[in-house]
Fold Peptide ABC transporter substrate-binding protein.
Amino acid sequence: MKKYLLLLLACVTVILAACSGSEEGAGEESVYRTIYSGEITTLNYLKTSNTNEFAVAANLVDGLIEYDKYGIVQPGLATSWESNDDASVWTFKLREGVKWVDHEGKEVANVTAKDFVDGLNYVLDAKNESSTAWIATVVKNGNAFYEGEITDFSQVGVKATDEYTVEYTLEGPTPYFLSMLNYVCFFPVYGEFLAEKGESFGTTKENFLYNGSYVLSEFEPQNRRVLTKNATYWDKDNVLIDKIEYKYNKEAATVAPELFVRGEIDAAAIPTAILDDWFNDPEKKNLVRQSSNSFYTYFYALNFNPQFDAEYEPENWQVVVNNKNFRKSLFHGLDRVSAMMTVEPYNPETLLSNTITPKNFVDVDGVDYTQLDALAKFSNTDSFDAKLAVEFKEKAMAELAGKATFPVKVLMPYNSGSPDWANRSQVIEQQMENLLGKDYIDIIVYAGPSTGFLGEVRRPGKYAFMEVNWGPDFADPSTYTDPFTIGGSYNKPELAEGYTDSNGQPKYENLANTAKAAIDPAERYPLFAQAEAFLIEEAFVVPYAVGGSGYLASKLNPFEAQYSPFGVTMEKFKGQKLLEKPMSNDEFKEAKAQWEKARAEALAEAGN
């Protein structure tokens, strides 16, 4: 999933509120306010894959399904669905009477099956440059249409069989297809409005239509945006916060704790630098709690297609990154516990992840995916090994003598809107240079922009070695392995030298394609595990952690929110309400234990 800037979302969004919600009195407006430092550039959910952007859109537009607070699939705009025996054809009956409205809440049209066809047509039209088109190619002939091999969209596997029935025919059996519908590329759009607006669709609140729980009533980039409850929403009784107000502040992550102390805000992320002060203060200690873990995974990517400025010696980096021993020296030389202490100083080991796919995502006959044979040796071992790191350094220097210049300049950017990321970069620079020697590497920490970091730094490849992240789009291991395939999102491993198989394809590409061809999870998942293990064994990436690290003071109860490891469900405010006071860490732990028990029972009852 191209959720590129989860790091930004965790670090630059701070939740504020003017009042403590509807619990204070009947009829009182519940307002939830946020400040942010990373501005969105579009509302076009059919095009973007930026977390900040589709996090807003998820509250403005509904899809076919959604999830409850335990992660059980629930009807959304579809009231029912069925598939054929091999899960290659799926049919959805739509909820009638759902309206498209404008930013003032005025009705424009009914939501019909054609809207889902029109949405997918836009996504799969290559000229629209949708960042999520690759997910939608699960639909039959989707890739052929995207590549221009066919030009008649009626040949693509989506059609409105009547006004309120939409049918998807897929490239092959896809038992996890329901989970894919939780992502923006399968959302509907009112085709007539989209055609009328053209490239201006999603650029302003007026150039957008809404069928979700909120409408965008105000939108002034780098100043303010307001989401107001949609009075025509089909499930408005479960929308408990009346208004969401976002206010731009370039220092959002820094100023929030002080605003909270002054009683001006409802919640704030608490940076590690002041965390001890909060826990040692008799009044503040009961206001701060841990964040909830997520299925976002963080890892350090080694870039095989460096596009940074000449002063950082990209050609030299190109030479050394293609040396396995050099990569292995970085792989074993990164002390992940030291890095994690910048956000979790108390229990850093609990957030570390030794694989790209997190634990507890999927399993095969009760065996967790990360414990399958190919991955188990990584899952159960810390990658940091100072002795091995130095041994690989010595091998690399011997092999690269006369071919590369030492010390190697290692450009490592971070987002300037994230104080913890900035601190972590400094820790890693010092730790790795001290271990491996400044005669070997010169890690150059670079402060990238707080807004547009993805487009200006990561996507163009203006880094050598950098922390990146990924979140799942659907319930299958391919959601974590696809970003590394040709045309994927990360570090261009297909350009690594010496990894071409006899068929002319990169070795990793063949491993991933072999896994995709298998249908039965008992065969499919171990094959994906082999592909992922290859990336780790060859040190193309250094797995680091799972998301959700850090501490905050918040009047939101995370266990009331819709829950799903994939897609946009967890970005929704629907179902949440403002508490009278923030949860303490003890209250959080108790609520989490109760939720985990209830979720296990709910999953068992649902047959998951």
The longest helix spans residues 585-606. The radius of gyration is 24 Å. Residues 408 and 484 are 25 Å apart (CA to CA).
